[in-house]
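Input.
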Amino acid sequence: MKSDEEIMEILEAYDLTGSYRKAAELAGCDHHTVRRYVQLRGQGVDPTERAVRSKLIDDFLPKVEELVERSRGKVGADAVHKKIVAMGFTGTDRTTRRAVAAAKDSYRAGNRRVFRPWIPEPAMWMQWDWGEGPRIGSRRTSLWCAWLAWSRFRVVIPVFDKTLPTVAACLDATFRAIGGVPTYCLTDNEKTATVEHVARIAVRNPELVPMARHYGTVVRTCMPADPASKGGTESTVRIAKRDLVPTQVNLRTEYTDFAGLQEACADFMTEVNNRVHRETRRIPAELLAEERLRLHPVPEQPFTAAFGESRRVGKDSTISVNSVRYSVPHELVEESVWVRFHG
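Output.
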């Protein structure tokens, strides 16, 4: 293959002499080479472009493209190679890998996800998600992370579990912290929100529906395995874990009790909600004051599930929770009480 400079000299020599052989003597090459490049130039073809040669896998390319399309670009070259070998392909796996890579590039180019800026409306969306919290002693904790899409106001609440009573309590605490209820609440597809999917349609947890109705909001869930559809709260979880969970990066010491974690979360919310946000260039607490005018009012009483699970007090003045017995005042014998882990 000649370089660009050599091809330019060959064509220049031919234009000067008008003869293949004389141009070959001047350019120092064979006259057949001069003729080939002159003919390519006359056909309007790039002389540096290599001719496409037939390959063993050409007859199997439709099958390769079909497998890539059916798997949405997830199929591996090894699996494709086994299938086309069974169909009669005699080439090597290296040839198959190249063909699969080219087919995947073509598939991604035609099915590339387009990200457009989301311009939220005041009082419309709140998002929540869970983050792995620090251990207190030997017990795990979780961080409830909520985020108002328009004002970027954040609420972080530490809890010991992610049961439905805890979700109800965190929702109630979040609504009272922001001073209102938004139209929609977006979250992930955990069992507390979505019990199953039927024909890709999320089926809501029947215990969550009356809770949302009590507060006058609608709970929506993102697409399965698609964190980008609730990226705001994903960022909130990442930042909260970065600042609140003890690591070698933030040099935060271990928490001695749950009250210390609660205090750290309160300090975190004060800090992030009172500094200028990078996107809005405004302070979230100030934007919340404007957004609060459009939020729905919070009911005076929390939803009953926020109090916990119901238990009946036995004659020995105890209740059983998770196979552990707890003592309660004897005045509550034979009464029904609400039970929830807190602090």
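The chain has four domains: 4-42, 56-110, 125-306, 309-339.
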